[in-house]
Amino acid sequence: MNRLLNDILAQANPSLVPGLARFFKTGPGQYGHGDKFLGIKVPVTRAVVKGCWRQLGTPWDGRSEGGFPELEECIRSEYHEVRLAALLALVELFRHCHSERQRRIYIDFYLAHTQYINNWDLVDLSCYPLLGVWLLDSPDRSLLYDLARNGRTLWEQRIGIVSTMTFVRHGQLEDTFAIADILLHHPHDLIHKAVGWLLREAGKRDQAALEAYLAPRCRTMPRTTLRYAIEKFPERERKLYLAK
What we know:
Strand content: under 5%
Largest sheet: none
């Protein structure tokens, strides 16, 4: 029995489905086209995960593909909330694990299933507590650069930049600025927002560093990115940047 799946399905609220479908842009031609919802809000999903994540974390062995059968079933679900539950459970398993070998298994599982991480909330609630933490003390962060440059989907590219949130929170800003450069002129608005968001977070730690980054770029970068990046600036400074 897959308790995570059963407990999530039990929380379905059909009255919320139309609103969630609109919010996550599931119409024809929109970024979430075709996604299906059960009508479950994130706090409810978190509560379900909190009650059962400890039961999901033992793989059959360190080599078996899909070594977490309950998570495997959930992350492949047609329902958005079930996929989110699998990702939040994976975050908890990783967070509470003290074995580097086991932590690597969790990371490999995540990277092997990015095709199912196909909306901004699924990215933003999972990537930096997993990849960001995993790479925080690593001298080689090329994985994130590769995702930003060569990601098969805009969601993999978004993982590349949003994962740097962990670095920013530890005062390490260089990778955020470097990956922002890779994605700065991406065609999709959801990448513009993600880049601007991470630049804004970097600016909270070091506004001078953000201003130095913006100085040669603010005239040509997407306006959405610029607006997000300077959101915390004083109003007069914001107006000056936008006037450029």
